[in-house]
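Anyone up for a design puzzle?
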């Protein structure tokens, strides 16, 4: 038995429930203040990450626009022709 085995709880061990506290306005302002301090420490990292997410969002919007304006009308037109061939075949 190694010294690290004592730190590993058994699979059936019960854990104490975490304490749930109320969130106050002060918590939000502290989080914003610390986030702004992090941004002032490393602005290039934040700007890169924000730019990456902004470009990813624009890519998703472009894919959705393409789906709505190109794919759905083409599928609708093809489905209309298929329906008319199956329901009322030309004589």
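Challenge accepted. My sequence:
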């Amino acid at each position: 038995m190694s010294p690290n085995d004592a730190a590993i709880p058994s699979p059936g061990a019960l854990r104490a429930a975490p304490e749930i506290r109320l969130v106050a306005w002060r918590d939000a302002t502290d989080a914003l203040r610390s986030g702004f301090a992090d941004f002032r420490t490393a602005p290039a990292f934040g700007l890169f990450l924000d730019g990456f997410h902004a470009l990813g969002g624009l890519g998703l919007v472009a894919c959705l626009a393409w789906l709505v304006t190109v794919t759905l009308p083409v599928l609708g037109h093809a489905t209309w022709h298929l329906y008319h061939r199956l329901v009322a075949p030309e004589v």
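A detail worth pointing out: The helical segments are 25-41, 43-87.
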